[in-house]
Amino acid sequence: MNDDARKLRQLLKIGMARAGRAPAGLPTPLDALLPHDATAVPEAALWLSLGALDLWERSGFVTPDQPAPVPAPVAAPDTLRPCPPRAQAVLALLLRGLHPAGLEAEWLRLLHRHGGHLPAHMLPKLLDAATRQPALRPAVLPVLSERGHWLARLQADWKWAADTDADAAQWETGTPEQRVSALRDWRARDPQAALAALTAAWPSEPPDQRAALLATLAVGLGPDDETFLEAALDDRRKEVRAAAKRVLARLPGSRLAQRMEGRVLPLVRVDAGRFELTLPTALDAAMRRDGIGAAPHHGLGEKAGWVVDMLAAVDPHVWNRHFDHAPHACLALAEHSEFAAVFTRGWALAVQRHDGVDAWLRDFLIWSVGARPSLREAVPDSLFDLAAAHLAQDGADGALFDALAGKWIGDGFPMRLLTRLAAGAREGWSAPMTRRALERLRTSLLPLPDMGHPWLVRQMLSALALVLDPAPVVAREDDLRAAWQPDAEWDTAVNDFFDLVRLRHEMTLSFQEPA
Q: Is the pTM of this model over 0.90?
């Protein structure tokens, strides 16, 4: 409110009769808006002046003594293709929030594959959505277009989408979470520069922030990082030492891995068709420094837990070379060992911490289907999440789905496994993998009224509806319905499954329409 409006409102509160004076004239050019005879009646002049000022303020009047805002530069012409109208209609439906959030990311990936950009009128909604859901940002960024990046620069909350390099500024002045994110992005572009920045800032970093920053070195990890990480093993905070150990375990040929390998190999041998293990006798200072015994392992004794820590830091390929066995053979030898849970948990952790171990990951999945429940409990759930993100698009040569053969009534694990693999998938499954899954669903899901685990079945169908290639599912809908024979109790779950698949099918077809 400017001074003129404030004086007029004060005069209104006091009252014309009590104030004993007429309202002051309006400044130029507002004075021209009042009728020439307005001053003849002071009360009329007051009300007309208030109305004129209110209208002027709401219309965006900038007083002459205020600097005019500098207009933002106009966005450069877009180089991406326009989004087809049919696909825009699907996105509008998704943005109503009535469908699973994962569909928005899938729609964005389809748009990127189409080579298109987001419609201009939908940019604010998508930028707002990705601001609230950071997991959506990788799918939004490739389809923002020049206009989207230009628009992001005009709103502070959308800074993450601006096409300017904000990592350095966030590293210097951001919140703890922003600094971790900035350092991670920096590592992806220039690992050595990011390491130098972290090294310079390390002495002044608060202890509770060091572990989170250290974990970012897993991005772009290389031999140049080893000296810094080895020094972090001597940090006074346990969390920092544990983070350094986890990152060093991912570095092929690291000194930590060599030390762990030298400790654990002499303890393991093959005897009578199974792995035998000799537990270590004591925990020395060097072992403590390398993180052995830092945390207990549920269900295992103290010394058995030390072995788990050693196994977790050794590249699983070491066991293939040392015993000349494939991963599935190593798992079979360990399954009959007195220390089966030790080998299972240690190797599962090692698979998560090392790259290039797809064969171990696949064989762990196949082995887990037939393993006894007590051994499955030794496998961290996070291994199945990792498998979901890296599952081969050809269905792991069909071996995984072959392992899922048989009736599922007595054991809910196959359904839990499929649900987890579907829920953690980075993208939709390929058509060959979908056909393998459909065949297993057709033969293993007996008539639904006879199935046990009703909640697991519903959860599995909901997860699969978001990842199966929709075209083969739509083509086999009648066949699947006949095999499952749903009754009134199951109609809703089955209908929801096919409704969601058909929506995804329509989404795919919508991008085949010319823009």
A: no
Contact assessment for residue 294 and residue 331, using Cβ atoms and an 8 Å cutoff: no
Query: How many helices and strands in the chain, by DSSP H and E?
Result: 30, 2
Measured over the CA atoms of residue 103, residue 106, residue 112 and residue 116, the dihedral's sign is negative
Q: Quick: pLDDT tens for 64-98.
A: 565 555 555 666 777 889 999 999 999 999 988 78
Cα–Cα distance list, 461 to 421, 468, 491 (Å): 12, 10, 12
Kindly state the average pLDDT of the residues 162-171: 65
The residue among 119, 117, 111, 1 whose CA lies nearest residue 50 is 1
Taking Cα atoms as reference points, which of 504, 445, 515, 426 lies closest to residue 472?
Answer: 504
Spatial contact of 270 and 277, defined as CB atoms under 8 Å apart:
no
Band of pLDDT at residue 50, cut at 50, 70 and 90: confident
CB burial of 127-145 (b: ≥16 within 10 Å; e: otherwise) equals bebbbeeeebeebbbebbb
> Domain residue spans in the chain?
3-58, 85-161, 167-249, 269-390, 393-515
